[in-house]
Amino acid sequence: MTNLLPTIGLETHVQLNTRTKIWCGCKVEATAEPNTNVCPVCMGYPGSLPVLNKEAVRKTVQSGLLLGCTIAHRSKHDRKSYFYPDMPKNYQITQYDQPLCLGGGIEIEVEGTKRFIRINRIHLEEDVGKSTHLRGASGIDYNRAGTPLMEIVTEPDLHSADEAFAYLTALKQILQYGGVSNCNLELGNIRCDVNISVAPEGSDTLGTKAEIKNMNTFRGVHRALGYEIRRQTKALEEGTPLIQETRRWDDAQGSTSSMRTKEDAHDYRYFPCPDLAAVELEPEQIAAWEADLPELPAARRERFRVELGLPEYDAGVLVGDKELADYFEAVVASADGDAKAASNWVMTEVMRVLSESGDTPSDLNLTPESLGGLILLVTKKVVNRNKAKDVFDILIKEGGDPESIVKEKGWGQVSDSGAIEGFVKEAVESNPKAVEEYKSGRTAALQFLMGQVMRLSKGKADPKMVLELLKEMLA
């Protein structure tokens, strides 16, 4: 059979981090007690009228600008009719044929190959309630209903699970940098519907599409696509017909299963929402919002590389998380611009602590100013690297001032050549066997002797000076 090519399109739902909901003044608060942030508008009571949240429009337009979209000077909202318990009005207010943003895209890189993934549209709508299915009943929390939600729809430009993962990762980074969404997957800030079909490579038509609904982790999207590509490929190779349908992903089983046949647009009976006027945006307003846009990840990565002199790998890792990149830049400022030292500490010690604890940089007792101060103490040879790690551990546990900790613990580095020479002489005289091994070409003996000097100095000796004096004395 001809090679089969997967074709993938993603519909990513992103909650905007506004203070209040899109049509009313209820708070957006993911951790509130169920059904406490609701009102007649959220609950769709007869006679209640929606009022559009301007901040939601601004954040959607800025998202479009960040992604290179064309911003519509006129857009409108529509009613999408469907009957499900999570939507109390029995229709969702969304945008159909006149969305806020059109076009744009994101460049991704997979295994050294760069591709541009086109965006079809971004429209602004309301989120629905959250359903929880128990053993004998289901519960619905309407706190989420009415949260401002962007739907970002790609063109069918993706062809592998790896590309989908790269796109979602890049999208998350851009939106976090833009400050439009918290992008917390655990709280459901980003959810994804996946459209996947498989057809012979070079075919003029796409294959029969399956949609996998409400994926809430990027890892899950990757695994679900891998399974679905295998399932559809096997069906085509065996001559088994595929049907257009919506499927459910079971993460525990690692497989999808059919939920229902796929709806088409006409099944939702879209029509303009009679309760809302069209959204009219003046060019001056769009330009003002564009002027407020922050630096994007790609530009920041290049600045770290060119202006701060970081290796490309370091720059990529640090820029990958906006909060970590902000923390790093604050450390650099406090370390008198020593970007490489700051990068070494953040990428090794700080990221290790964050990985072990699951915390974010803002949760740390160790402030950027304290870490920058510790770096300066090492640079000025007030404390050596080994003792600096001990200071770091104290700062992580308790916070505080690194210089005060060094003084209190008596960890100040010994840089006096006379004092260190005494430690070196004692180590050499006490370990004649190691001296002979070194002279016979066993370089490991030198490290042993260095360890002895550091023990005698209680870890305070300047390691560089110790090495120089040892080599001189052994010669």
Describe it for me?
The protein is α+β, with helices and mostly antiparallel strands. The chain has three domains: 4-288, no CATH class; 295-409, no CATH class; 417-474, Arc Repressor Mutant, subunit A, CATH 1.10.10. Helix content is 40%, strand content 20%. The protein has 15 helices and 17 strands. Strands 1, 2, 6, 7, 8, 11, 12, 13, 14 and 15 form a ten-stranded mixed sheet that branches. Strands 5-4-16 form a three-stranded antiparallel sheet, with no helix packed on it. Strand 13 (210-215), helix 3 (218-238) and strand 14 (245-250) form a beta-alpha-beta unit. The longest helix has 21 residues, at 218-238. The chain is elongated and about 90 Å long.
Describe the structure concisely for a colleague.
The chain is α+β, with helices and mostly antiparallel strands and 475 residues long.
Topology:
Layout: E1 4-15, H1 54-66, E2 70-71, E3 74-75, E4 78-81, E5 91-94, E6 101-102, E7 105-110, E8 113-126, E9 130-133, E10 138-141, E11 148-154, H2 161-178, E12 190-200, E13 210-215, H3 218-238, E14 245-250, E15 255-261, E16 271-272, E17 279-280, H4 283-291, H5 297-306, H6 312-319, H7 322-334, H8 339-357, H9 368-379, H10 385-398, H11 402-409, H12 417-430, H13 432-439, H14 444-456, H15 463-474
Parallel strand pairs: 13-14
Antiparallel strand pairs: 1-11, 1-12, 2-6, 3-17, 4-5, 4-16, 6-8, 7-8, 8-11, 9-10, 12-13, 14-15
Helix pairs in contact: 2-3, 5-6, 7-8, 7-9, 9-10, 12-14, 12-15, 13-14, 14-15
